Amino acid sequence: MKAAPFSLRLLTLLSICLVILFSCDKPTPKDLNAEPLIPKPTAVIATGSSFGIKSSTGLYVSNETRAAGEFLAGMLNPATGFNLKPELTDAKVSRGILLSIISDSELGDEGYELNIDEKLLELSAQTEAGLIRGIQTIRQLLPPEIESDTQVEGPWEIASGTITDIPEFAYRGAMLDVARHFFSVSDVKQFIDYLAFFKMNALHLHLTDDQGWRIEIKSWPKLTTHGGSTQVGGGEGGFYTQEEYKEIVRYAAERHIMIIPEIDMPGHTNAALASYAELNCEGNARELYTGTKVGFSTFCTHKEITYTFIDDVIRELSAMTPGPYIHIGGDESHVTSLEDYIPFVNRVKGIVTAHGKSMIGWDEVAQADLDEQSVVQLWNSPDFARMAVSKGSKVIMSPAKRAYLDMQYDSTTQWGLHWAAYIEVDDGYNWDPELFAKGVDKESILGVESPLWSETVTNMDEIEYMIFPRLPGYSEIGCSGNDRNWEEYKTRLARLDARLEAMEINYYRSARVWGEDTRMQLVDNK
Ligand code: ACM
To answer: What are the chain's domains?
Structure first.
């Protein structure tokens, strides 16, 4: 047979090459609107295509966005096996990933915009905090395998379109009680990572309680050497040295999460009262306490040494806490008379202010002389929250019966308590901070916080079980306000399971989210 002329063969070869080249590079169609992002962004416009991250993808930054670029590379490199590195550039970038600081007042302190097409993924914000939030969106838009610590096969494709995301409430937090049971620095960092994933911005650490004092105060060393030496059930307890606390603060700050340290007083103070006899009215040190009762301890509010002590504690704590707040507790002081309680809170508030911070207190502190700088955390009493608002203070919404992460899901839950309520996943989601306490409206609400008390929770597996899958819902309440719907949210939450599993998180597989026995059927059908 006669061979085809050379020009024809060349043409055929060329066409084959072109087909290969284009079929490999052809972006996969993807629907940005179908991505199960939590919290749901403010606005999404899908364009039906995708952006692929490859080993050759450029990651372009400016001086201002370099740290965010490092953070993004640190998120992408382990699972992809790529070695993406931020590259400084002033040039106009039309391919790759570009992180920019822009001026757009609508985006505020934490908002961001993502513009994704087949060639360019551009993340823009007014602040580094906004970029860090946007990086979590990029993470959530990638397949769950991106959570792997070791290399897995891609492709690493992100649906194209535009996302604008501006959180509704300024404060979106969670609390971890490290006093009833102590948790290590690495546990706290893991907890911070979970908050960061859902774009929360505050970690309230409940550092002291009857059962333990967990933060080193150099001028009162027995607080930790003695007061930190046990925990609920009599275990060995523990505490954070000041260097360890600063490391927690640094780690959180890298993720634009502020640490709010709480020193609970005048009640919930048995660990301090056991460490220093002079803090007791009768001058005798108390025994250490490893039970779970509340409301039996109080500082001696009439003694001057009490205020010298508090001034030392708040001074040392303020010096290592860059955030604007010190939480002074103030809850359940059942053995402090109101006549003693109010002047005590007033005086402590003055100490906090003198050290350059604003005071947060549980809702009972509303009975004291508050002002516009003070913040009251509603856990129990809408009346106290209204009282706080009437004094010009702002409110953080943490109603126990909706937002406490230590409340059991139902009567079969192995850990947690149920004195406020059983909180199934939908109960935790289906409430509106703006409607919870009549008279406490949007303007007075700083935000939402979900506290995890640790009377019954002793390790990270148990923490995870109590917070997942409720934590994402609290984040969405804080980000989206009342623009939410359980039925729609449920479909996104249901798809979080693969990611939770990729992250090796122990979670409660609620029938309200995943149905009664779909998992069993899947297994049976294999
Ligand atoms: C609290 O639950 N005692 C604030």
So the answer is: 32-165 (3.30.379.10), 171-484 (3.20.20.80), 491-526 (no CATH)
CB of 156 within 6 A of ligand 1: the answer is no
**Cβ-contact 62, 39 below 8 angstroms:** no
Token reading at 232: 């609920």
pLDDT given at position 483: 83
- CA-CA-CA-CA dihedral for 177, 182, 188, 190, to nearest 10: -110
CA-268 nearest atom, ligand 1 = 3
Identify the pLDDT of residue 9.
58
Residue 325 carries which side chain, given as an amino acid letter? Answer: Y
In the residue annotation, 443 being an active-site residue is answered as: no
Helix pair 66-80, 128-141: axis angle to 10 deg: 20
Q: Which residue has the tokens 């992460």?
A: 405
404 Cβ inside 6 Å of ligand 1: no
pLDDT, the chain, mean: 94
Indicate the burial class of 419 (C-beta count within 10 angstroms; 0-12, 13-18, 19 or more).
exposed
Residues 267-294 have pLDDT tens digits of 999 999 999 999 999 999 999 999 999 9
Residue 396 to residue 450: CA distance in whole angstroms? 10
How many Å apart are CA 141 and CA 28, to the nearest integer?
14
Alpha carbon of 363 to those of 203, 294, 305, 370, 398: distances in Å?
18, 16, 26, 11, 10
